[in-house]
Design brief:
The chain has 332 residues and is of the alpha/beta class. It has two domains: 175 residues, NAD(P)-binding Rossmann-like Domain (Rossmann fold); 143 residues, Orthogonal Bundle (N-(1-d-carboxylethyl)-l-norvaline Dehydrogenase, domain 2), CATH 1.10.1040.10. The chain contains 15 helices and eight strands. It has an eight-stranded mixed sheet, sandwiched between helices. α2 links the parallel β2 and β3.
């Protein structure tokens, strides 16, 4: 039987810890704040998932070495833009793990590296031990044990299979995949597309508008992924269109909700002040846009979202710019 460590006590890290524990895998979580650790040890996480009763096989500590002691699987669930800093502090403890799992969905600012690349570079973890878990997995629904499926991707399928078997309670079905690039690009870009869909909703637009943005957003995601060497089939699966639909359409999605508020006329700073959270797409849209430019990939939706978030352009102006683009063949 595997044992696991989960670094990060946020929504998805906590929900995935419950998935592992409910699948028979004992979990020790690492948290930066003693208050969060105390809550987990009391069987709850009031700050993020107050209705989730954690299994007794989930415990927590503020000591990274204690967290990984005896763990076959180490799961990283910290904010993507803090991953390198965190690995500088405790990345040395990852050495004995058979699998290092990334739950993060972002592209690093400045370097345009995917999270698996940061883990490899800053954590010294071989690529054949790095696993990416991604799919339509809204943490509050997972916490309620509502049925869901996900992709467990690793270049070594036997490692992906080990992680899948460790995280397979009755309500969570993992599918393995060897396309790490496509899985990560799908997870990062969908957050930006969800901002655009949220903006459309905030402007009062209907399902036609939102479906159009989702579909063309999938085209942008696929173009970028293929330029980086991904498998086209990944974008038609759970990590691709599945996660895209869930994130773009659900009010549980931080990125969707953030976009709705932008569409209603709030500034980025005002939304952060109201929600006390910054959606991942807000942080990553600039680095994803740079990654696309570096590989000469056209991403007009991502470009316009970045203009709203970083340049102060109005969402209404963005819609006009997208609709007035030159006509072209859909599959060009």
């Amino acid at each position: 039987m595997s044992t696991a460590a989960v670094f990060g006590t946020g929504s998805w890290g906590t929900a995935y810890a419950a998935v592992l524990a409910d699948g028979g895998t004992p979990v020790r979580m690492w948290g930066r704040r003693q208050e969060a650790v105390d809550q987990v040890n009391a069987g709850c996480n009031r700050d993020y998932l107050p209705d989730l009763a954690l299994p007794p096989t989930v415990t927590a500590t503020t000591d990274p070495e204690e967290a990984v002691s005896g763990a076959d699987i180490v799961v990283l669930a910290v904010p993507s833009q803090t991953l390198r800093t965190n690995l500088a502090a405790w990345g040395h403890v990852l050495g004995d793990a058979k699998a290092v799992v990334s739950l993060m969905k972002g592209v690093e600012l400045g370097t345009t590296k995917r999270m698996s690349e940061v883990i490899h570079e800053a954590g010294g973890v071989p690529q054949d031990r790095i696993v990416v878990v991604s799919g339509p997995n809204l943490a509050p629904e997972i916490a309620k044990k509502q049925p869901a499926a996900s992709v467990v991707a690793c270049v070594d399928e036997s490692v992906a299979d080990m992680v899948a078997r460790a995280s397979n309670p009755p309500y969570f079905r993992p599918y393995t995949n060897t396309d790490v690039v496509g899985t990560e690009i799908s997870g990062a870009v969908k957050n930006v597309i969800a901002l655009a869909v949220g903006m459309a909703e905030g402007l009062g637009m209907g399902d036609n508008s939102k479906a159009s943005i989702i579909t063309r957003g999938l085209a942008e995601t696929t173009r970028l992924g293929l330029a980086l060497g991904a498998d086209v089939m990944t974008f038609a699966g759970l990590a691709g269109v599945g996660d895209l639909i869930a994130t773009c359409m659900s009010p549980l999605s931080r990125n969707h909700t953030f976009g709705v508020n932008l569409g209603k006329g709030m500034s980025v700073a005002e939304v952060v002040a109201v929600t006390r959270q910054t959606a991942e797409g807000v942080k990553s849209c600039e680095s994803i846009l740079q990654l696309a430019h570096d590989h000469d990939v056209r991403v007009p939706i991502i470009e316009q979202v970045a203009a709203v978030v970083h340049d102060g352009r109005s969402p209404k102006d963005v819609v006009g710019r997208l609709m007035q683009r030159e006509l072209k063949n859909e599959t060009d």
